[in-house]
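Quick one, probably user error.
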């Protein structure tokens, strides 16, 4: 009995100090793990999520007649709370509607990257916190105007233009450090060939619609 009575028990404050010390040590280790493996853990258990959306806009008319240029844009939206680094949007596939209304593939040797906006001050690889606009394409005022995708580079034999009464589908893919979209997003562009110097009216002659699609064996089958 005397030996039991003579035991020294830690004071309540000492218990809290032990608990706090343990939590501090655990927190330090956890922070170190995140610093080293944070990107892997996030990519494995909470991967990024980015999407391309059409903009409810009239587009931008730049310049004065007879040298005006009409631009249309798309928006890349980050659906996660953390930033997406080194993002870019690639043109992966194209197809043109034929006289029989069946879309035929347009040859593409390599993927091509779209230009972020504003192009003069935005690098080709961007960090997206919430959203970022890109130049989808443009039409120059001319006797025979045509739609051209806005790309950093295109080969000399590029055939993805949209002339009068033509329709082309573009399959886009988002790529970043920790995210690559598994499903291409397909946007259909139709142009009737008419030019109007007012952006709100020009929008009536050029339509851009997203078309549901699915990726199968590295290809997109549009439904």
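Nope, works fine. Designed sequence:
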């Amino acid at each position: 009995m005397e030996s039991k009575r003579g035991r020294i028990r830690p004071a309540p404050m000492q218990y809290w100090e032990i608990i706090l010390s343990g939590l501090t040590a655990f927190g330090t280790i956890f922070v170190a793990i995140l610093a080293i493996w944070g990107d892997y853990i996030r990519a494995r258990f909470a991967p990024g999520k980015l999407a391309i959306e059409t903009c409810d806009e009239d587009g931008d008319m730049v310049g004065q007649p007879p040298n005006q240029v009409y631009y249309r844009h798309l928006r890349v939206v980050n659906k996660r709370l953390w930033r997406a680094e080194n993002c870019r949007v690639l043109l992966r596939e194209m197809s043109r509607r034929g006289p029989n209304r069946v879309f035929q593939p347009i040859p593409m040797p390599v993927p091509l990257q779209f230009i972020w906006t504003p192009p003069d001050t935005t690098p080709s690889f961007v960090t997206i916190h919430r959203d970022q606009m890109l130049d989808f394409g443009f039409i120059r005022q001319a006797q025979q105007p045509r739609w051209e995708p806005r790309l950093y580079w295109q080969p000399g034999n590029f055939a993805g233009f949209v002339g009068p009464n033509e329709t082309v589908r573009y399959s886009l893919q988002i790529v970043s450090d920790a995210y690559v979209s598994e499903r291409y997003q397909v946007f259909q562009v139709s142009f009737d060939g008419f030019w109007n110097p007012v952006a709100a009216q020009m929008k009536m002659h050029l339509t851009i619609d997203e078309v549901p699609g699915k990726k199968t064996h590295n290809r997109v089958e549009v439904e």
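The mean pLDDT is 86.
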